[in-house]
Design brief:
Blueprint lengths: L1 H8 L8 H13 L3 H12 L7 H20 L3 H13 L7 H21 L22 H12 L3 H13 L8 H12 L4 H13 L7 H13 L3 H13 L8 H13 L3 H13 L7 H13 L3 H13 L7 H12 L3 H13 L4 H13 L3 H12 L22 H18 L3 H13 L3 E5 L9 E2 L5 E2 L8 E5 L4 H12 L9 H17 L7 H14 L6 H18 L3 H4 L1
Antiparallel strand pairs: 1-4, 2-3
Helix pairs in contact: 1-2, 2-3, 3-4, 4-5, 5-6, 5-17, 6-16, 6-17, 7-8, 8-9, 9-10, 10-11, 10-12, 11-12, 12-13, 13-14, 14-15, 15-16, 16-17, 18-19, 19-20, 20-21, 21-22, 22-23, 23-24, 24-25, 25-26
């Protein structure tokens, strides 16, 4: 499988050889290699070489077959891919319960890892955002923070130590550096640093575990009312240590104090005690309450626990859809996903084909950001590794339009991403419809006949509903479809700063189409409303172009009100 990947993306200094890559994948797959089976599933899902609808159906069936084969071997990506496909009904029967069964196998492993340590966090970077809009600390900013910390600023030192401990905001996870900076802050009596040092000694992160040292750090932090210190004391009282006997009531007391002071770990542990009735009266509703509060702070094991409760109707209504969405979230925080995201981002500039391959692996597993990033690399032409091979002897006229093929690949991933609520993908699909890019699908209709189908109940069905044969064709300019996409984008709720520019562009495009009557009756008043909404949605964005367009709209309105030549005469 590894050799197949090298031929697929042209690694190790060699050129790309799709045919050889396919042979290697098939050879490894035949002897049960789950990575090769998953890779084959991806290649078939991309519909490479499909020349007809029947061909496309065959590729889709083979994709499902290979994903299923890999999932039976416990491949995390394949299990997630099958869960994702069952949830949305992509190539398989739509079944929430089947989706849950696939996701839960991966989610349980991920939740256990988070419960036992601090895995490397990976920031989700959207490649279609401007560099300045990506929330990543630059190397110059890192050096500045390090210098400030070294000069004795305990607050900055504690912040750097925490970032190294968790591996967030551009700081690569490094337990040694984390301990160094946390020690600097703790020597200046910083309670948060002492609480984190307690975690390092308690879990043995980069050093040998030492519960007594951990207990002393937790106690010192808790005396300063630190939430992590209280959570650590609760953990030691719950587990017990050579010098601290197990005491569930003390554990409950400290977890409760930690939760009240805003610790997601404290909330999770308090919820677990309510769930099992340990150290307190059992209460499923209170367990759900505190698990939910921990989830709101991004706590992964809390997401898994809530998913199981929703799946079985424990303490809350039984809701498979909520459970699957939570399980999917947990799976996407696991090592299989984070390692491929890290690889993809490291290759995104110097080797876009390698980056795209890693994003495609995640995209087929249902990772929305990876779907958008893969689509972006294909759409912009930065990656071409999935383009079909053509014979050098073929006539030039028969060579496929590379840009169009890449856009068709991009369109598939944009649609998958948009289905999961991505406003940037929804907006881009509007552009595809506006310019007539990609492909479109519809049911064949016999427009030459006026015959109707009469059902057994005597119901007359028009021709539109009598054909079940799907027709795929190149997409033509479709202003109505573009309007629908832009409208959905413009009406989306802004839940993150990164969304503002895309939602604003949706409003701007609607204003433009209403101003010039593209796909809708010309309406300058509505155009003005959309332009103004664009300015309101993204006040920090580029305001000058919108201001110029509004001025032009005023002139346009005056021009339309100007009397015609016939009236003047």
């Amino acid at each position: 499988a590894a050799l197949g990947e090298m031929d697929l993306v042209g690694a190790a200094g060699g050129g790309r050889n799709f045919s050889k890559a396919l042979d290697l994948f098939e050879s490894a797959s035949s002897v049960g290699d789950p990575d090769a089976q998953y890779g084959l599933g991806i290649l078939h899902a991309s519909m490479l070489g499909a020349t007809s609808l029947e061909d496309a159906k065959r590729h889709e069936a083979l994709a499902v077959l290979h994903f299923y084969a890999a999932s039976t071997a416990g491949h995390p990506g394949a299990l997630m891919a099958m869960g994702y496909r069952h949830f949305y009904g992509y190539g398989v029967p739509q079944s929430c319960s089947a989706a849950a069964l696939n996701y839960i196998n991966v989610a349980k492993r991920v939740a256990n890892i988070y419960s036992e340590g601090m895995p490397q966090a990976v920031q989700l970077i959207r490649l279609n955002l401007n560099q300045k809009d990506r929330k990543v600390v630059s190397s110059s900013e890192m050096n500045l923070f390090v210098q400030i910390a070294s000069n004795g600023d305990a607050k900055v030192a504690a912040g750097i130590g925490k970032r190294y401990l968790l591996g967030i905001e551009g700081f690569k996870q490094d337990y040694g550096l984390a301990k160094y900076y946390l020690d600097l802050a703790a020597n200046d009596d910083h309670p948060g640093a002492k609480g984190l040092l307690g975690y390092i000694y308690c879990l043995g992160l980069g050093i040998e575990a030492d519960m007594e040292t951990a207990f002393s750090y937790f106690t010192a932090a808790a005396q300063k009312h630190d939430a992590l210190g209280h959570n650590g004391l609760g953990y030691i009282h719950f587990k017990g240590s050579p010098t601290q006997p197990r005491d569930l009531k003390q554990a409950f007391k400290h977890f409760n104090e930690s939760a009240l002071r805003g610790s997601a770990d404290g909330m999770f542990n308090l919820a677990s005690m309510y769930l099992t009735g340990s150290g307190t009266v059992q209460s499923f509703p209170k367990a759900v309450l505190f698990y939910t509060q921990a989830l709101d702070r991004g706590h992964t094991p809390a997401a898994y626990s809530l998913a199981v409760m929703h799946l079985n109707g424990i303490g809350t209504v039984q809701n498979c859809e909520i459970a699957v969405n939570l399980l999917k979230r947990v799976c996407e925080r696991g090592d299989w996903v984070s390692s491929r995201l890290t690889a993809a981002h490291s290759f995104s500039e110097q080797d876009p084909d390698k980056a795209a391959w890693n994003f495609v692996k995640l995209a087929e597993a249902g990772h929305e950001v990876a779907q958008m990033n893969a689509a972006h690399l294909f759409d912009t032409g930065q990656s071409t590794f999935l383009l079909p091979e053509v014979s050098s002897s073929s006539a030039e006229a028969e060579q496929p339009d590379e840009r169009n093929v890449n856009r068709i690949l991009a369109q598939r991933y944009y649609e998958m991403s948009a289905e999961q609520g991505s406003v940037s993908s929804e907006l881009r699909l509007g552009d595809f419809a506006y310019y007539g890019w990609g492909i479109a699908a519809s049911f064949k209709g016999d427009n030459s006949s006026d015959q109707e189908l009469i059902t057994e109940d005597g119901v007359h069905l028009p021709n539109l509903y009598t054909s079940t044969e799907l027709e795929v064709r190149p997409q033509v300019v479709d202003y109505e479809a573009a309007i629908a996409r832009y409208q959905k984008t413009a009406e989306s709720e802004v839940t993150g700063e990164w969304m503002q520019g895309f939602v604003a562009r949706g409003s701007f495009n609607l204003g433009f189409m209403h101003q010039f009557g593209l796909g809708v009756p010309q309406d300058l008043q509505k155009a003005k409303q959309h332009y103004n909404k664009c300015k309101e949605t993204d006040p920090a964005g580029l305001q000058l172009p919108v201001t110029i367009v509004l001025a032009g709209l005023t002139a346009h309105h005056a021009f339309l009100r100007f009397p015609t030549t016939a009236v003047l005469m």
